[in-house]
Amino acid sequence: MMASGLFGTIEPRSQRGRVACSVPLPEAELRAGNSNWTKGLQSMSEWVWSANLNPVVFPNNLGRYFLQIPAVFEQQLHYSTTLIFDEPSFKNGVQISGMLPRPLREMVISLIAQRRRCWYSMTHHAILGKLTATRHGMSDEDFAARWSQLDEHRAHAELFSRAELAALDFAAAFATNPKAYSDDQYAELRAALAGENERRHGQQGRWLEQLAAARRARSMGLLRGLEGAALDESSRDAATLAGTRHLSSEANERLVNGQVVELAFVCLQFVALTGVFSALNVHDEDFLATTLKEVVPSPVIAKINQLNEAGGQGMAPTLPPAVPVPLQAILEGRVVVEPAPLQGARVPLVPDEGAPSQGPRDKVMSLLRHHGELARYLPPYSLPVLFDEDTWRNGVHTGGFVTRRLKEVVNQKIFRLQRCRYGIAHHGLLLLDDLLREHGTGTFRPPSMSDADEARARARAQERASTLLTHAHSHRQAPEGVFSALERVAMSWAEELVTRPHEAYRMEQGLRDALDRENRHELYAGLRRLDTSLDGGDVEAAHKRLVDHQLAELAMVMGHVDGLGRVFTLLRLGSEEPVQARQQEGSGSPRALGLSLASTTVGELLVNPRANDRVLEQLQSGETSIFIPATETVRTGEF
User: Fold this and answer.
1) How far apart are CA 109 and CA 126, in angstroms?
2) What are the residue ranges spanned by the domains of the chain?
């Protein structure tokens, strides 16, 4: 029974007068050669994201947005569904998803949506949060109180459990300044989750231990020659005994590791989506206001209305404080700072199965091994977002609408805005690798290329990568020719999406124009194929449709990278040893990698503010040659 006066007294804020959505949001096009995929994916999205809460079809603009990037849509459904909606799920005796309670995940999602003032996420996850809370026994009054105070949860600590408060602290730092998240906060998160796990063990995981105990006892019984009733009794007794035991500290530690990873990637997904929804102005569906009023308590609707009215005004900063790197002194060779070989992570890293003695070689995959379903679904999802080019299915262009070069340039902009060590280092290598590919050298060397030509091509790629990396943090002040016109406007749009997503639409036309010019140039040069399969020979319509796809794809690239960088920083991922080896030769020179001292000095100072302050003081005192070795930067470096 709904509490009297708690529902139906507040009208959701009208969408009338909102800026139009940046890309069309049509139904799946049944004339397309890949309509079996797109219509199937759209239909799946209308069920898989909510039907376990409310068993009716839910047409949604999120699915329609993903129709602009079908190759991503193909992988996104499984990834997001297991991450957000799974209750505790198991396979082969191991928990693989649903590690955090569903109501807690919905609190985290709505906190991020409220902190980042995202209309679409606030309204939709108010509904999904309420349906979830009701299923889990939360009263209407409790839901109204909690969801109305999520963004001020510490001021209303009496409303939340210890684990909820700790997870909300994590999410608040993740969405704003992950570098501000302290070791004490992290210790409290782990302790709070461990305590909650002990309390919930009887309802959630004990049955699995009982099955394992019974099966072990049966194996031993067979060894001892037991048969029939005696064999059954031995396994039954073992299961009963296991049912009286508490959660072991080792099992709890493993579960907490998985919960931290799940929490981090839930936060990643909604930093990504809130940036996309606000930057592209994705509207609620026409029916949603009625559903919101029916399902969600009026105090929560009032809170959402207040935040939607404010939009980006007064929104908390979304990034750590900037670091004023002395670029001119670095370019003049007066400052050289070696990269700090930082190691360690807040979550234990699981070594590769094939070479456990070598430790983790890919730290992202080492994190994901704590969470079976994320390890299964995140890599296939990240590939079309970050790396794939020229993806076609059944004669239709479905992904890789922009070049990897452009993706890596905007990725560097975002990682440098965040001052994220792992992102700067790893995606610096990926940018270099793409330039090596562009110049036909390294692993991309054609058999006919001479050694001399290969050396020249490699040197050009390395010089180009060094220049881009040196100026990416301050692209607006970069000399003419460092970045193309498209790269400049895309980096500016990326900065808006990350820092001021509600204002990003103001720069959109410039980005569209630059994309269109570059597309036409690539077509002329034979570097691009234009999909005209839906346009009846209308080339201009095909060009317009391509730019829509590109805008949608770039927004998701930027949102995903914004979230990834926060995971890397907050969980404190350092570079893997192979990356550090490529960055350093002898005393730390980047010459083995082929990048300039200026580019690696800029990268280190961005993630080492104390070293940067020291350099600025020395420059101000008149020093003309400053060198800080890796043995010193490692003492002050940040992740």
Assistant:
1) 9
2) 102-203+247-318, 206-245, 402-574
CATH superfamily of 102-203+247-318: AhpD-like (1.20.1290.10)
pLDDT number for residue 356: 52
- Helix count (H) and strand count (E) of the chain? 26, 6
The C-alpha angle with vertex 99 and arms to 95 and 192, in degrees rounded to 5, equals 130
Quick: pLDDT tens for 557-580: 999 999 999 999 999 998 765 454
Dihedral sign (CA 434, 435, 441, 445) = positive
Asked if pLDDT for residue 2 goes beyond 80, the answer is no
* Burial classification of residue 189, based on how many CB atoms lie within 10 Å of its CB (0-12 exposed, 13-18 middle, 19 or more buried): buried
Show the tokens assigned to 10: 């507040």
Alpha-carbon gap, residue 437 to 460, rounded angstroms: 12
pLDDT tens for each residue of 409-427: 999 999 999 999 999 999 9
Q: Return d(Cα 76, Cα 45) in angstroms, integer.
A: 10
Nearest to 149 by CA among 184, 107, 196: 107
Structure tokens at 366: 């080492």
Give 429-493 as a 3 state SS string.
Answer: HHHHHHHHHHCCCHHHCCCCCCHHHHHHHHHHHHHHHHHHHHHHHHHHHCCCCCCCHHHHHHHHH
Mean of pLDDT values over 170-182? 97
φ/ψ of residue 95, rounded to 5: -75, 130
Torsion sign, CA atoms 204, 208, 211, 216: negative
Distance CA(630)–CA(543), nearest Å, equals 50
> What end-to-end distance do the CA atoms of the chain give, in Å?
50
Q: Is 160 exposed, middle or buried (0-12, 13-18, 19+ CB in 10 A)?
A: buried
Per-residue model confidence as pLDDT tens digits over 339-380: 999 988 999 998 866 555 445 567 899 999 999 999 999 999
CA distance 344 to 51: 41
Average pLDDT of the chain to the nearest whole number: 93
pTM exceeding the 0.85 threshold for the entire prediction: yes
Mean pLDDT, residues 97-112 taken together: 98
